[in-house]
Design goal:
This protein is mainly α. 58% of the residues lie in helices and 0% in strands. α2 runs antiparallel to α3. It is elongated.
């Protein structure tokens, strides 16, 4: 796994990536830290749905200022991008 241009396999992720430093690994018998990609995907999905519905609901009310609705829609876009990144990492075979 010394070639940086080679595509990584599921086994590479299971063994751990090079130059990964976990300062708490093995401390007091603790297992190495693992990424919580599934939790991150669930939270990003919730944030996407909540911010999208809240932003559209806010903009539907005529006598409210529009900037909070726009902020919520921007947060929904950020959550959508995060969800895509997490799902691509999970499809690539990263544990979590």
């Amino acid at each position: 796994m010394t070639d940086p241009d080679r595509r990584r396999s599921r086994e590479d992720y299971a063994r751990g990536l090079p130059d990964h430093h976990d300062p708490t690994a093995g401390f007091a018998g603790a297992p190495p830290a693992r990424s919580a990609l599934t939790l991150r995907a669930v939270l990003a999905g919730f944030g996407l749905v909540f911010c999208l519905l809240a932003g559209l609901g806010w903009l539907a009310v005529a006598d409210l200022p529009t900037w909070p609705g726009i902020v919520l829609l921007v947060l929904a876009a950020v959550a959508a991008v995060d969800l895509v990144v997490v799902l691509r990492r999970k499809a690539r075979g990263e544990p979590g």
